[in-house]
Amino acid sequence: MFRILRNLIRMAVIGRTVARHDALPTSLLGTAPGLLWLWRRIARRDVPGREGERLARALAELGPTYIKLGQLLSTRSDLVGERMAVDLAELQDKLPPFPGHQARAIIEAEFGQPVQSLFQSFDDKPVAAASIAQVHFAVTADGQEVAVKVLRPGIEQAFERDIDLFYRLASLAQWVLPRLKRLRLTEIVDTFARTSRLEMDLRMEAAAASELASNFKDDPTFNVPKVDWERTGGRVLTLERIRGFKVDEPARISAAGFDRDEILAMASASFFNQVFRDGFFHADLHPGNLFINEQGTITAVDFGIMGRLDRETRYYLADMLIGFLTGDYRRVAIVHFEAGYVPRHQSIEIFTQACRAIGEPLQNKPLADISVGRLLAQLFAVTEQFEMETQPQLLLLQKSMLTAEGVGRLLNPNINMWELARPLIEEWMRENRGPEAQFIDDAGALLSTVRRIPALVGEAERVTRDIAEGGVRLHPQTVRQMLNGWETRRRSDRAALWVIAALLAVIALQML
């Protein structure tokens, strides 16, 4: 009973806030004229800004969980539309800080010892305060300068209360407006709950930072702060302190003697390597999370939102981009069908036509003038008409690409990051999608098949033995057919082995 009452009160607060900002997208009410009429009576009519901007302001007023929800929706342009997604991406993840003594209490509870034994000094005034945590500068007991991230007091409990309400609101919305079922609101809440719980375990963020640092350990152009594991736990994360300039301070960067074009080239290379080389990328590279340190190296912070792409998805992206940039729209369509993104019952000819409508405006344009992030956004908008299943990892990548391109324009609006990354792109394409790479992949697949043959034969022998021991009698003709089939398979296996040997010999000669 208490939970129901609490949710009703919270729903009333949400409704009042959204109405005051006129922040409910009226397109959702298009098939419910009664609700649309009611909304127009209770919502303010003089609120400035687009729908997305008004919604962002309402979510910011509602608190931390709602800010995070807005950030999630900003990655789902397939649900809210590209314009609203862009507006929600501008949602500022900033809140008033909580007192330093509370941060100290959380640290002491996490490690079971006083702050003085962990740090020589601890600055009670935070340098940044976001929806989930805030950051304090400190010096460790052994003299290392660090940044200490501390979760907000009670954030976990508040989050769980809001998630319970979100589930109820999702069910209610789909009951009142059945057309919203296509948006799979409950699944969105599931995703939001899962990712937010991970983000509130700061050990997971520490692990992400450590993995990203490992991927760039031999690369002097991209830096990740070291994790202080002794002072890191579920509610506290301690990283090496970074000194330098934010990437959106071009005047200070130039005054320090650093070449902004070189920095842009490093940023382009690091983003490309994260996405295509490693398949593990920082998915929140806005200017507040990118610094130029005192050595002129790009340094990233805040690893709560990371993205992953498996090898097959990276190959899909590469083939799709090649198809668009070369005007081979049939290839773009085939890639989508082969990946299983577009159902087989759709017409590949019509889908090819849709891809042409997206790609033709790119032809005869220099790579410097092409926004890959916007290209992906247009593609996802079109593929919805062809029942393409939502690919969250690609939507996250698309948002990250747009953000990275924005950072590039801050450093030099006349240079496109993809133009600078062209040599890396071409090399990666040759190594992974060229004829030699296809040849090696095919040889590996064939070798894998041959390696499975003994196991398959052993399984067949086991089944035959079990049948025989169970008293099942085989007709002599059946036995002869089995023996003939076995002999045929043996000849086939020998042929396959010779083919493998020939392929390996050719590869060896090419490598000499």
Automatic annotation (TrEMBL):
GO biological process, one term: ubiquinone biosynthetic process
Pfam families per record: ABC1
Keyword Cytoplasm: no
GO molecular function: ATP binding; protein kinase activity
Assigned keywords, A-Z: ATP-binding, Cell inner membrane, Cell membrane, Kinase, Membrane, Nucleotide-binding, Transferase, Transmembrane, Transmembrane helix, Ubiquinone biosynthesis
Domain Protein kinase as annotated: residue spans: 100-440
UniProt cross-references to InterPro entries, sorted A to Z: ABC1_dom, Kinase-like_dom_sf, Prot_kinase_dom, UbiB, UbiB_bact, UbiB_kinase
Pathway in which this enzyme or protein is active: Cofactor biosynthesis; ubiquinone biosynthesis [regulation]
Record-linked NCBIfam families: UbiB
PANTHER family: CHAPERONE-ACTIVITY OF BC1 COMPLEX CABC1 -RELATED, PROTEIN ACTIVITY OF BC1 COMPLEX KINASE 7, CHLOROPLASTIC
Annotated family: Belongs to the protein kinase superfamily. ADCK protein kinase family.
Identification of the protein by name: 2-polyprenylphenol 6-hydroxylase
